[in-house]
């Protein structure tokens, strides 16, 4: 949020001075997608590659006790670590290796108003929707083990999951934009 605020202040200052500045909505949505993908990339990368560290185990146990019981019971069960559900690691590997890096690059190019950045924002937005839907389906298939063993259950998971709703906000807005206004 700090980076977005600083960027918006600089953009407002440039507009007051009469310089050309991109539209505020492009900056807000692009920076929001960039920060969201970066945070998720770091979090899922740590969960995938540094799952044996004491710090991450402590954080995972706390997260599991409150929101997702799979991180509380049988954590570090498989050979890849993490929860005992093997599909969870598949989603993490897919997102860390493909979706979040592509989303970060697309958001950067979108902010720079490149046409391919616009196209890739739409493409990675749909990939994010499919990733989230698959992850949610996988989570709900193991409902008694995952959400049934947590303190807040479904309500807590949805409250935590609000931050994963960015494609549902950006995709309708992207389809409403005029594509011809982006540079080649």
Q: TL;DR?
A:
The chain is mainly α.
Word description of this protein:
It is a single chain. The protein has 184 residues and is mostly helical. It has one domain. Helices cover 71% and strands 0% of the residues. The protein contains eight helices and no strands. Helix 1 packs antiparallel against helix 2, helix 4 packs antiparallel against helix 5 and helix 5 runs antiparallel to helix 8. The longest helix is centred in the last third of the chain and has 27 residues. The two termini are 30 Å apart. The mean pLDDT is 86.
How many beta strands in the DSSP annotation?
0
Order of helices and strands: HHHHHHHH
Shape type: elongated
What is the subunit arrangement here? Answer: single chain
Low-confidence stretches: none
Amount of beta strand: under 5%
Global Rg: 19 Å
Helix content: over 70%
Number of helices: 8
User: What's the rounded overall pLDDT mean?
Assistant: 86
Main beta-sheet strand count, sense and barrel state: none
Distance between the termini: 30 Å
SS-based class: mainly alpha
**What is the total domain count?**
1
Write the layout of secondary structure elements.
Elements: H1 2-16, H2 24-49, H3 54-66, H4 86-111, H5 115-141, H6 143-146, H7 153-160, H8 166-176
């Amino acid at each position: 949020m700090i980076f977005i605020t600083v960027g918006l202040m600089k953009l407002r200052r440039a507009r007051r001075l009469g310089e050309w500045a991109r539209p505020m909505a492009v900056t807000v949505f692009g920076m929001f997608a960039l920060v969201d993908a970066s945070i998720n990339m770091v979090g899922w990368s740590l969960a995938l590659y540094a799952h044996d560290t004491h710090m991450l185990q402590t954080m995972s146990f706390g997260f599991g006790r409150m929101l997702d019981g799979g991180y509380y019971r049988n954590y570090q069960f498989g050979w890849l670590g993490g929860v005992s559900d093997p599909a969870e690691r598949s989603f993490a590997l897919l997102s860390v290796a493909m979706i979040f890096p592509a989303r970060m690059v697309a958001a950067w190019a979108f902010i720079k108003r490149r046409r391919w950045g616009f196209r890739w924002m739409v493409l990675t937005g749909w990939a994010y929707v499919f990733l989230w839907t698959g992850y949610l389906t996988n989570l709900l298939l193991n409902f008694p083990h995952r959400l049934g063993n947590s303190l807040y259950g479904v309500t807590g998971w949805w409250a935590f999951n609000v931050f994963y709703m960015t494609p549902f906000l950006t995709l309708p807005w992207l389809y409403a934009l005029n594509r011809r206004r982006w540079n080649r």
